[in-house]
Amino acid sequence: MSIKTFLAKHGIFIVEHQPYSPDLAQRDFFLFPIVKSVLTGTRFGTVESAQNCESKKDGGDKKGFQEMASGPASNSGTCIGFSAAVLGIYFSGCNGHMSAVIAAVSMFFTGVGTAGSMITSLDMAPRFAGSLSAFTHGAGNWVSFLLPIIVGAITKNKLLKEWHIVFFISISFVMMSGIVFAIFGSAKVQPWNFVEEEVDKDINTEEINTEKEIAPES
To answer: According to the UniProt entry, where is the signal peptide (predicted)?
Structure first.
């Protein structure tokens, strides 16, 4: 709370992650949203998702920076930046101070990913975002239980070369996940997000509009 108060005095307002609502697009939340996301870990992608949804509802089609920032571009930036930082730790060798600084930089890049894969469920299916997030994050976080076991098995002798193996394994997994998300990731709302009643209503509306366009003027 003291950090929020300090930043607020300097014109930077931090807003915690809120449930999905198109009304979010109508509010002015904070200055420098990318910096806020990286420093605090809170998500600015929610606002952009809401803006995309609101623009599509109004008949617009904003596919520029908003859609890209909450999709593969943001996630790729995280994967490349984090992998480069871990590689920097490898080259820092036994320099503990340099390794600590580079490790902090790697955490900087993890904040960028909050607008990528972390909010994909909001972009793809706002109606089922909670269930999708629980499933995907739960499936992804199970690795956290295995990680200490794997690291302990590799670094039995506490040698630097053993930690280098850990670093390269980490880089490999991060880059592979980034490539998969860049190819198959999407920020578009999926058809299965809508219930049958909404789909039927949209079809009927389109048919009525088509009939009005075809009908001759009286």
So the answer is: none
Residue 170 lies in a domain: yes
Tokens (6 digits) for 3: 């950090």
Cα separation, 92 vs 45, whole angstroms: 34
How many structural domains compose the chain?
1
Q: Does some domain include residue 200? A: no
CB 32 within 8 A of CB 12: yes
Condensed to tens digits (0 to 9), the pLDDT of residues 67-110 reads: 544 566 777 888 888 899 999 988 888 888 888 899 888 888 88
| CB of 50 closer than 8 Å to CB of 126 | no
What domain range is 128 assigned to?
47-190
Helices and strands counted in the chain (H then E): 11, 0
- Kindly calculate the radius of gyration of the chain based on its CA atoms and give it in whole angstroms: 22
What's the pTM?
0.54
List C-alpha distances in Å: 109 to 10, 44, 103.
24, 15, 10
Instruction: Extract the tokens encoding 202.
Output: 């949209």
| 142 in any annotated domain | yes
